[in-house]
Amino acid sequence: MMPINKCKLIILSITLIIVLGASAVHAQQNTDNVLAEAQQWLAEGEYHKAYNAFRFYAEKKQNHLAQFTLALFYQQGWDVEQNEAVACQWYEKAAKGDIPAANHFFAQCLQDGIHQSTDYAAAIHWYQQAANLGHTISLCAIADLYMQGSGVVKDPQKALAYCQQAASAGSLPAQLKMGRFYLSGEESIRDPYLAAVWYGYAAEKNSLEAYYQLGVINLNVLNDRSQALYWFEMAASQGYLPAYYQTARLYFNAPLSEETGMPAAENLAKSYLWLSAAKQQSKQDDERQGTLSMLEKVEQVIPESWKDDLDEKVSQHLSEFH
Length: 322
Prior knowledge:
Layout: H1 4-20, H2 26-43, H3 47-59, H4 64-76, H5 84-95, H6 100-112, H7 120-132, H8 138-148, H9 156-168, H10 172-184, H11 192-204, H12 208-220, H13 225-236, H14 242-252, H15 265-281, H16 285-301, H17 304-321
Helix pairs in contact: 1-2, 2-3, 3-4, 4-5, 5-6, 6-7, 7-8, 8-9, 9-10, 10-11, 11-12, 12-13, 13-14, 14-15, 14-16, 15-16, 15-17
């Protein structure tokens, strides 16, 4: 199933295409008006009314935007039984009308063999078509095929070259992909320093995953605990779950005060705050056990007078982001 945020972007793109079509001839204006109304129904969750309108224009008028939207209905199961094969059939029709996202999703259908036999060569063709129409992240889908050797000769360097085109053009998903390739991809291309470069570009776009991975690189490669804590807490403070435990652990293990032999007040408070948040959100058994163990030790030394305020901050944070 497509992530919700991707659906919102697609729905927004549909709306923009409809608006941009308003300068066409009268017949096209009428079509745009009807589709704009259908789009409004879709945005409001009136799926049945929207479906009927999009279905009419997809079938009777061969409108490619309507065909693309109908594919989304079947992929997402909006008021119809979810059916990926039918979705792929509609993506195929829409792709012939140069709808960039339709080209990409049709390529995925061909890659995965959903509505017909797997055809990697055709998938690459349609991914490239999508990229040519401005859907640059499709180049990273081609990169995945070369990285895996799926339907092509395995070639990690060629994979990097494909995805870097999109990343260099400013695509955030592509920059994250490049970071993943260099950090944990094929042994022959791993380079945590280059990973940090691409995650750095993504961090400039406020990517929480990039913040977290820069924390990982600073902790495990550069051995810079201060910078690691900075990036982990940047991610944690905006609700990125994996960062809670790492942030808490670094505060918990911060050096003790030379004067008192106790944790510094800020480190103690932050340990309690992030451990409390991690306790409520952690799903992994090993992290949960570590969280509970550290929290028990913190609760033995933290002043009782601090807890109410810190518990309120934890509650406010979790209600805002989760």
